[in-house]
Amino acid sequence: MNLQDLGWDAFFADAFRPYENDNLIPARVAARHHGPCELLTELGRLGGVPAGRLGEDEQPAVGDWVAARPLDGERKAVIEAVLPRRSAFTRKEALSRTVAQVVAANVDTVFLVTAFGGDLNPRRLERYLTSAWDSGSNPVIVANKSDLADDPISELAEVEAVALGVPVLPVSATTDEGLESLDPHLASGRTIALLGSSGVGKSTLVNRLAGREALVTAEIRSDGRGRHTTTHRELVPLPTGALLIDTPGMRELQLWADEEVLDSTFAEIAEFAGECRFSDCSHEHEPGCAVKSALADGSLPAERFASYRKLQREIRALEIRKDARLKSEARKDMRRRQRRMRKSSY
Known about the structure:
- There is one protein chain.
- Helix content is 30%, strand content 22%.
- By secondary structure, the chain is an alpha/beta fold.
- α2 (122-135) crosses α3 (152-162).
- The strands form 3 sheets. It has a 6-stranded mixed sheet, sandwiched between helices. Strands 1-2-3-5-4 form a 5-stranded mixed beta barrel. A two-stranded antiparallel ribbon has the order 6-7.
- The protein is built from 8 helices and 13 strands.
- The longest helix is centred in the C-terminal third of the chain and has 44 residues, at 302-345.
């Protein structure tokens, strides 16, 4: 198996140099199963187990490149280190903890998969686009199930209104309609992640692109909600030489992003804000506010600005929780040091 076919390049080669003389080999994480991993290497596919000394924030994610130590006589390896990531699609852990969860690492393009009908939701897409821009990957909106669309033109118009500068590609994974529009993004050695809600047809799309039944699919439930047919993240090689990371459908996507990235998702609001009289305009009570003027004359839809404000508040609240967590950890660390000092003085 050739490393370049797996996305290896000069960036990762430089990152691996500290490990070259320690009997370690580069490997890419193809799947993760609550601890153990599946690794793709020049030795073939190996089972991988993270070294016990790796902390919670050092655990590998699907798409990561790692330094692995093969075990003699076994098809297994110990993951000694995770190489720096070029990009990472990250969300806040679904639990109450203020912890980041890496969904997919080292991704070149993110296919944000939605479907004609109830899932073609502009507000949800704004949230996905914000995470995609923050990841460092290039987002592409893939509107699946075009064969089931009642009014595709008006539905696509709603999506394009919030996907400024982002390709919007209508396809049908069932009939193959429009799939050729994805080809420019599926070049050899490129990594693509599929993200979206349950039931939008991600697994069917993977199977079409892979040319085989690589993943299990299921029918939509009677209440219209999708079924979770993908239970874990997995990297699937495609006939084109590209690598596709499928992910379980998300019931919700809690943001883990910097506020500045909203300027990419809401580019027109950033443009209006640049014309405000005051550089620190809050767009609420200040005179000479171009954003308020745009809202008044209808050039900026009120629901679009309301969505911007909602995501802005969410990110700011997250920053407060992050800061509180760091202060709490610093206090715990100080108490541990004080206890060690007291013990050493006896």
